[in-house]
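Deliverable D5.2: sample structural annotation.
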Amino acid sequence: MKTVITKMNRTLFELLTGIMIFGIICQLFVFWVKDRADYSAGLWIGILTAGISAYHMWRSLDRGLDLGEKGAVNYLSRQNIIRYVFITVVLIATAVTGIGNPLSAFLGIMGLKVSAYMNAFTRKISKLLYGEEILPELIIEEPACEQEIRR
């Protein structure tokens, strides 16, 4: 299991970990409501949607940043629209079919945002699995006028 996790992109892992922690914390509060099954189903539909959206966001950014400036803007805009349409369809399907509570599904989807804010906490979990992050040294470019002065 650890080898599968460490092959995953570290930032995506941290985001998915935060979404799962948020889902577990919210699930604890679901035990106090009257219609537990409906709220719980909606919550986990939302958590699954947030996880799929996080993966889609990572994949879109990974591919989009390889394009040129204009191509990246167009590509990433299209991918954002696709992601938002997917989330809207999930919420509408939850409301229409009656499978799960749409409000708890929305709460689960908000796990994507909460997970981004929990980054300091999920980074500690990531360090336990991945180890310390080794960043490449910064390359500092000198302005052209300073390069000419040295000549």
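Annotation notes: Residues 2-131 form one domain. The mean pLDDT is 82.
The annotation will be released with the project's public dataset once the embargo ends.
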